[in-house]
Design brief:
The chain is α/β, with parallel strands linked by helices. Helices cover about 40% and strands about 20% of the residues. The strands form three sheets. A six-stranded mixed beta sheet has the order 11-12-10-9-13-14, sandwiched between helices. The chain has a five-stranded mixed beta sheet with strand order 4-7-6-8-5.
């Protein structure tokens, strides 16, 4: 198990107690203390004295990505379960994921459904994400929708250490390191699995990195998705795009794709005030245009509203397009 910690004293005891309560007895915990200045080291050391499965590694404050890679390099087990110091896991988590990794050896990463808490800290966007994440279950669905959102909650996962290290481990950059890893593994042909049970209780906090670090901003996600999406489409021989959504926000986000040399064949919108306009040399058309004109262009749906997005997906499937092959939902 890989557990990086920076100033996690207020929650670490709860986390380690949940790990100690696992039904699986044989595991190691590689706790990387990333230069904590609170009592994290004292708490971790006290636990280690009573449980030889816990190894405490101390670093100067180097940041999450370097702490993850260092812990990954020091781990001895072939399978790595991720965990964060402010979360806690269900007692059967490790046993269930170990069994799943044996049942699905073709899957590099095995995640689970998650429960977020406390309820009072959940934003509307987080609630919507959790509903989607906990319903995106199969390897096929996770691959088809990987450009929509991160299909796996990082601290819920167990993965093949050798495969992740061969892929280059974690990368530091202006993007979320976990989502970048999933996109990179997907690009390399790796498959993901997810268990039906909610095996991780995922703490929500206003001070979490995902809410205050620019690496988790909307623009950071857009740039990251565009990089991997364009690389993926080029490998499939796609050179032109049909963009569903012609609003200002969509045009700004689609601009990332143009920098990779793609052209836009058409924009689709249902707003009669926009239909007929020309944007970047391509006309805004109605959805019915696809029935007669759709060819080799990839259809990218940038509509953000969840209900509308699903209606669009059903329409595209109704006219014969395949999700994850002919069209993609983009977050």
């Amino acid at each position: 198990m890989l557990l990086p910690v920076h100033n996690g004293a207020s929650t670490l005891d709860h986390c380690l107690t949940s790990i100690a309560g696992q039904t699986l007895a044989q595991y190691e915990i590689v706790l990387v203390d990333d230069g904590s200045t609170d009592s994290t080291a004292l708490i971790a050391t006290a636990y280690a004295k009573g449980d030889r499965r816990l190894r405490v590694l101390r670093l100067p404050h180097v940041g999450l990505v370097r702490a993850l890679n260092y812990g990954l390099s020091q781990a001895k087990a072939p399978l790595i379960a991720r965990m964060d110091a402010d979360d806690w896991m269900a007692p059967a988590r490790l046993a269930a994921q170990l069994e799943a990794s044996r049942r699905w050896p073709e899957c590099t990463v095995v995640g689970s459904r998650v429960r977020a808490w406390p309820e009072s800290a959940l934003t509307g966007g987080m609630r919507e994400y959790l509903v989607w994440q906990n319903s995106c279950m199969s390897a096929q669905d996770m691959a088809a929708d990987i450009f929509l959102e991160s299909p796996l909650t990082h601290p819920s996962t167990l993965y093949n250490r050798a495969a992740v290290m061969a892929a280059g481990g974690y990368r530091h950059g202006p993007y979320p390191e976990d989502y970048e890893l999933w996109l990179r593994l997907h690009a390399l042909g790796h498959r993901f699995a997810k268990l039906q049970a909610s095996l991780l209780h995922w703490r929500q906090s206003g001070g979490s990195l995902s809410r205050r670090d620019p690496r988790y901003s909307r623009d950071a996600f857009d740039r990251l998705r565009a990089h991997y999406l364009c690389s993926y489409l080029r490998r499939r021989g796609v050179r032109s795009l049909v963009i569903w959504g012609a609003g200002r926000k969509t045009r700004r986000r689609a601009a990332h794709l143009l920098r990779f040399g793609f052209t836009i064949e058409a924009w689709i919108d249902i707003d009669p005030r926009k239909v007929g306009n020309v944007i970047n040399g391509a006309r805004v058309v109605t959805p019915s245009w696809l029935r007669a004109r759709y060819g080799r262009s990839a259809v990218l749906v940038y509509v953000a509203t969840h209900g509308a997005r699903q209606q669009i997906a059903r329409y595209l499937e109704f006219i014969g397009l395949v999700r994850g092959s002919d069209f993609w939902l983009i977050g």
